[in-house]
Structures are given as C-alpha cells and as structure tokens.
Amino acid sequence: MKTIIITGGAGFIGSHVVRLFVNKYPDYNIVNLDALTYAGNLNNLSDIANAPNYTFVKADITDFPSIVEVFNQYKPDGIIHLAAESHVDRSITDPFAFIRTNVMGTCNLLHAAKELWKADMEGKRFYHVSTDEVYGALEFDGTFFTENTKYDPHSPYSASKASSDHFVRAYHDTYGLPVVISNCSNNYGSHHFPEKLIPLAINNIKHNKPIPVYGKGENVRDWLFVNDHARAIDTIFHNGKSGSTYNIGGNNEWKNIDLITLLCSIMDRKLGRQEGESAKLITFVTDRAGHDLRYAIDSTKLQEELGWKPSLQFEEGLERTVDWYLNNEEWIDNITSGEYKKYYEEQYKNR
Ligand code: NAD
Ligand code: TYD
Questions:
Q1: pLDDT in tens, 80-113
Q2: Ligand 1 interacting residues, C-beta cut-off 6 A
Q3: Ligand 2 atom 9: the closest Cα is on which residue?
Q4: In the chain, what are the domains?
Q5: What is the largest CA-CA distance in the chain?
Q6: Which of 107, 220, 236, 351 has the fewest CB atoms nearer than 10 Å to its CB?
Q7: Which of 34, 85, 133, 298 is catalytic?
Q8: How far apart are alpha carbons 188 and 274 in whole angstroms?
Q9: 14-31: buried (b, 16+ CB within 10 Å) or exposed (e) per residue?
Q10: Beta strands 220-225; 253-255: pairing state
Q11: Alpha-carbon span 134 to 126, nearest angstrom
C-alpha cells in the first residue's frame, strides 16, 4: 500500500484533494496532516471521515520534531503539501505568520522528507502546491504567466510562497529530493472560507450586507473550479516530471466587478429577487495595498505534456458553487457566527 501525506487537507483545496484521493485510490493510505488553524475545518471531510484508507493527524508544520515523528510513524512514499496561510489581506496585517508557516513550515517538511528518504529516493515524491501570485502582476496587454516568467511577488503572502518554491527547488538541486511544483490561479467552489471574494460575496448577498469591492473593481483574476485543480494535482503527482514546474489555470479571466455583477444576477434568480436588486449591495471600498492588477495563466505545458484541461465553463461552475452555499447554510453559518468565529478570531490574535 502506498502512503501519501497530504498537508492542509482540512482546508478549502486540500479537502477536495483528500476526497479525490481517498475515493479514487482505495489501495492508497491517505494521511491528512493539518494543524486545524482558523481555516481548517474537519466538517469539510465528514463524508469520508470513516473511510478505511483515511487517517487524520493533527500536527503543525512549523513544529519540526512533531513532523519528524509523524513521518517516522507513517513512512510516506509521497507528500502533497498544501498547508499554508493563504489570505493576502491577513498577510498584510500579520506577515510573520506567513513566514513561519509558508517558509519555515515548508522547509521543515522538505528536511524531514530528505532525512526519511535519504537512503533511497526511488519512487518517492514531494509535491509542493503553489500559486500564480509568485509571478507578480500583468498589465492589460494579453500576456500570460508561463513556467519561465521571472518571480516578482508583491504581497507578504506571495513573497512567502515564492520563497517556499525556491527552497523546494534548492532541495531538489542540492540533495536530489524528487520534487514537483505547480502554480495555480484563483480557485472557487464549495468549502471555500468566507474571507475570500466569492464565498464572502455569496454570504453577504444572502444576508443583504454590502459587498466590498476593492478600488474600482478593475483587477483581473483567472478563476479555476477547485475540482479541476484537484484533478490537475492528481495528474501532476502521478505523471509530472521530477524537478518540473507546471502552471495550472482556467483560461478564464474576469474583472472583479464583472464577476460580482454576474454573481449578483445568479443570486437574484436563486433567491427570487428582482433582477438588479443584489447589485445594489456593491460597495467600492479602499483598495488593498500592493493590489496586483492582473493574473493570467498559460497552462499549455500541463495540457500538452500531461493531457489535463479544465472541465467546466465558469458560468456553470459559479452556478454550482452558489447552489452548494445555498444548500449548505449550516456550513457557512457555523463559520460566520457563534463559537467557531470567536475561536478562530481569538486564535489568530494570539499568534
Ligand atoms: P486554506 O487557507 O483554505 O487552507 C489551509 C489549510 O492549511 C487549513 O486546513 C489549515 O488548517 C492548514 N494549515 C495552516 N497552517 C498550518 C500549519 N502550520 N500546520 C499544518 N496545517 C496548517 O487554503 P487553500 O485556499 O485551500 O490553499 C491551499 C494551498 O493552495 C495553499 O498552499 C495555497 O497557497 C495554494 N493555492 C491556493 C489558491 C486559492 O485560490 N485558494 C490558488 C493557488 C494555490
Ligand atoms: P481573494 O479572494 O482574496 O484572492 P487573491 O487576493 O488571492 O486573488 O481576492 C480576489 C480578488 O478580489 C482580488 O483582486 C481582491 C478582490 N477582493 C475584493 O474586491 N473584495 C474583497 O472583499 C476581497 C476579499 C477580495
């Protein structure tokens, strides 16, 4: 049996990756290693929590001795690393949390993997899940980020992810660690923590609260359905070339204001409101510091080398996403109110 440790499996993307692997590979032993920070939620995985090939381990990647202990206990053949601090706005108010988790945490995992595998690296794989934000920002000039685009991060979040990517390559080049990296565009879908644009807007529209749009809403993001990202991770984990980087994207650029306007019209229809009613909630607010203008991904390498492509049109994916949030009100209410909210706000303040 192959044992794979997936870090950050209780978070948004991680939970989709864990679910895919647990269901698709019954002969793999899937270990979800997560510290359950404010963003980690075991409710995300309630449907597979009792699967025979699934184990949850609560551990913090910033704590090297406990990572070594977990690695020695489970002896993984593969690591898929998603655990991170992931919200740009939080990185502006608390950059050190991002340096600790995203840089130090990644180095701890790399080092523990190197120590565990040093006698024989054959058949082993360390997969680092990263972001397109490491490449910086594009102008409105029709260009795309490729795997060869120079790193130029602007936020503490993207700088911490860029740094972790460099360490992953350094462990490959210096110690021969069999690594693979992917840099993906913005994800959307179910179980997305409601501090991020799409779930925040859905929740605010539902409760008739203002939808905060930064600046003039002119910034552009390339949006990919989270299940398509999970499929790409599966493909790259199994077939990607060791030492390689793959860009993952939806070829689906949207200005924030156009995306929010589309979301408002879907919500009007779903909630039986008059067309245009939800759009009245759009509120332009002070722009994010260092706000990257445009992200756009060229995923030709992944498509041509490994045969992956996005499966969903954005309108359909967004509609499915809205349906999920409206049908799972308890999930979002648990996060946005009461004890859990108090818990994660307190936890964050104390770091
Ligand atoms: P998320 O914030 O929803 O989840 C992060 C998970 O990591 C949580 O379960 C949290 O408990 C866990 N975690 C955080 N710190 C930890 C620590 N010190 N030790 C162990 N576990 C810890 O994040 P996400 O949006 O699912 O992103 C997952 C990964 O994908 C990140 O590495 C992120 O940089 C990358 N990524 C995200 C996007 C996106 O659009 N969300 C796009 C491209 C890449
Ligand atoms: P976000 O979901 O935070 O992802 P990222 O910053 O990693 O791209 O934000 C997506 C875009 O939406 C980004 O351009 C910032 C903008 N934004 C708003 O306009 N209002 C909001 O309340 C948030 C959270 C984001």
A1: 999 999 999 999 999 999 999 999 999 999 999 9
A2: 7-8, 10-14, 34-37, 39-40, 60-62, 82-86, 101, 105, 129, 131, 161, 184, 186-187, 193
A3: 197
A4: 2-192+223-253+293-314 (3.40.50.720)
A5: 66
A6: 351
A7: 133
A8: 26
A9: bbbbbbbbbeebeebbbb
A10: antiparallel
A11: 19
Distance 9 CA to ligand 2 centre (A): 22
Q: Report H helices in the chain.
A: 12-24, 64-74, 88-93, 95-98, 106-117, 156-175, 197-206, 226-239, 256-271, 300-306, 314-327, 329-336, 338-349
Model pLDDT for residues 163-184, shown as the tens digit of each residue: 999 999 999 999 999 999 999 9
Q: Is 147 a catalytic residue?
A: no
| End-to-end CA, the chain | 38
- Of all residues in the chain, what percent carry a pLDDT higher than 90? 94
Backbone angles phi, psi at 34, to 5 degrees: -150, 145
Q: What is the pLDDT of residues 186-242, one digit of tens each?
A: 999 999 999 999 999 999 999 999 999 999 999 999 999 999 999 999 999 999 999
133 belongs to the catalytic site: yes
User: What integer best gives the mean pLDDT of the chain?
Assistant: 96
